[in-house]
Write a structure and sequence with these properties.
It is built from six helices and four strands. It is of the alpha+beta class. It is elongated, with a radius of gyration of 20 Å.
């Protein structure tokens, strides 16, 4: 599902842009396009996005990851998340703010996966995701370091990693 919200200087501008977006969506294969042209329909259309995190919260084992993706890379990310989902037998629903590239990918354990297997699998998924990100998207240095650190921290209760986390925290707490 793709939600698009428009703002403009005039009703005519918004309507023209809305019509152009509807045409683009249909040309790109959208099954249907709904236009919220009243406050009530707009609210109803945004409800699934607003309730998505609540629907995921009932899943017992998951890892919510924020991903900042350059806009031009979003179409490449989605098939990569699907590939990782199949490769590691996990669910990876993704939602967020495509206009600024802030996406929320939630890696979810399948019910048949044992918890011990999940604890091994999650760092692998994160490491693969980090590798794809660093090699394909060319994130900023800060984003690359954050992703690499996140993959390391997901590796578990290794005493060396815990000591590293404590040193990093101390550095920022000064």
């Amino acid at each position: 599902m793709l939600l698009v919200e428009l703002d403009g200087n005039s009703q005519g501008q918004v309507e023209a842009e809305s019509n152009a977006i509807v045409d683009l969506c249909l040309e790109a294969g959208a099954l249907d396009v709904y236009v919220g042209n009243t406050p009530a329909t707009e609210k109803r259309m945004w409800n699934p996005r607003r309730s998505w995190p609540r629907h995921l919260s009932h899943l017992p084992v998951q890892s919510l990851e924020d991903i900042v993706v350059p806009l031009a890379q979003i179409p490449h990310l989605m098939p990569e998340l699907e590939r990782l989902s199949r490769q590691y037998n996990v669910l990876i629903p993704c939602y967020g703010h495509a206009a600024d590239g802030n996406l929320h990918a939630t890696i979810v354990k399948q019910s048949e996966t044992l918890l011990e297997e999940w604890q091994v699998k999650l760092p692998q998924v994160l490491g693969t995701c980090t590798g794809w990100w660093c090699n394909s998207v060319e994130p900023s240095v800060g984003a690359r370091h954050w992703l690499q650190a996140r993959a390391l921290l997901a590796a578990g209760d290794d005493p060396a990693l815990i000591a590293l986390q404590q040193r990093i925290k101390q550095a920022f707490d000064r």
